[in-house]
Design brief:
This protein has 377 residues and is of the alpha/beta class. Helix content is 29%, strand content 25%.
Length: 377
């Protein structure tokens, strides 16, 4: 029998899961609360472990076309002086790639059969029995399948049907982020991080190098809401980096110019969950392991989740075995993602102390989630 799956959430993790499931021969429907499938305009950095998964999802060529591979990875002090570091303590030149989130989502969604994604469906409930699982939506509809995958983000409704709900934890840091057109004075194909005491500033190219993604990380004594789309004040951002490398000032000045954008993002994560699955329900991506961005692994870990879960389900022989497969997926992924969550906190502290105690990322980059899943089948 062909397995049937419902994915709740149409972000990068949910759409990647749907693509992986379709490629594994599983019938899937995606239910997204927004009225159109879209990602707010900002960039995401793809690491070797995530790029490996994207090749398996059939979008490797598209990534090479619309992404921006980093030829150079640079750590700098506030005045612009270079900081020597080992290759695995930051991005790997020639391997890591910047991409616009909307471009990545579009490439993945383009792999799905027409009608797979249903927008305007906000999940409000869940129920299951021995034979099936059902997601309930605010518009009065339901979706029943052999399993439900909660890819509904850091404020996941479905998480509450697996473990006792836990509020996200504010990191004490606010990120100012957005896009500006490519600057002549910024070297092409370069990801650069300026590190100071209590704050740091990141720039990398996206959209085949035509745009620069920037993120300024600054302390905040009060919690700021977690949002990808709250507008920011470029003047406030500039004040945080007064006296730093003039290149930062030029990036910030471009925010208010043609093609520039700026958003403010309160940064939250969560203590690693004790469990991810309950019967025929499991979680994926930020719904289970939201993490700070300092290791650049949020999207990459969701891609690993998607491929690992679909690989295990694709090897399942019947709907009756789904709960056992979901338990195996949890065992495979939980410790690794918890380590990345905690490592992201540590890396942020390293950046905010002028680059001390940076993490060696080999254990992250060299991992192949597909191979690890295959070994369990």
């Amino acid at each position: 029998m062909t397995l049937r799956a419902v994915v709740v959430g149409g972000g990068i993790g949910g759409i990647a899961a749907a693509v992986a499931l379709v490629r594994a021969g599983i019938d899937v429907g995606v239910y997204e609360q927004a009225h159109q499938l879209t990602e707010v305009g900002a960039g995401v950095s793809l690491a070797p472990n995530g790029l490996r998964m994207l090749e398996r999802l059939g979008v490797g060529e598209g990534i090479r076309r619309v992404g921006a591979r980093y030829a150079s990875a640079q750590l700098r002090l506030p005045d612009g002086r270079a900081v020597q570091h080992e290759p695995y303590q930051f991005s790997l030149p020639g391997q890591n790639t910047g991409i616009h989130r909307a471009d990545l989502l579009g490439l993945l969604a383009g792999q799905l059969p027409p009608g797979t994604v249903r927008t305007g469906h906000r999940c409000t409930g869940f129920r299951q029995d021995d034979a099936s699982a059902t997601a309930v939506f605010a518009n009065g509809t339901t979706a029943t399948a052999d399993l439900v995958i909660g890819a509904d983000g850091i404020h996941s409704v479905l998480q509450g049907f697996v473990v006792a709900p836990a509020e996200p934890v504010f990191s004490g840091v606010v990120a100012y982020r957005g896009l500006v057109p490519r600057l002549r004075e910024y070297p092409a194909g370069t990801i650069r991080m300026w590190m100071g005491e209590g704050r740091h500033f990141l720039v990398f190219p996206v959209r085949a190098g035509q745009l620069l993604n920037y993120v300024g990380f600054v302390p905040s004594p009060t919690a700021v809401r977690e949002s990808w789309s709250a507008p920011s004040d470029p003047a406030a951002l500039a004040a945080h980096f007064t006296g730093w490398d003039p290149v930062i000032g030029r990036v910030i000045a471009a925010i208010s110019g043609p093609g520039g954008s700026g958003f403010q993002w309160g940064m939250y994560d969560r203590v690693p969950l004790s469990r991810w699955s309950s019967g025929r329900l499991t979680l994926l991506g930020d719904a289970e392991h939201p993490m700070l961005p300092h290791l650049g692994q949020g999207a990459n870990q969701a891609l690993e989740d998607a491929v690992a879960l679909a690989t295990l389900l694709g090897a399942s022989t019947s709907p009756a075995g789904v709960p056992r497969v979901l338990a195996a997926y949890e065992r495979l992924r939980r410790d690794r993602t918890a380590r990345v969550q905690l490592g992201s906190r540590q890396q942020g502290a390293g950046y905010d102390s002028s680059g001390s105690q940076l993490i060696d990322r080999r254990w992250i980059y060299e991992y192949d989630a597909w191979a690890e899943a295959v070994a369990l089948t």
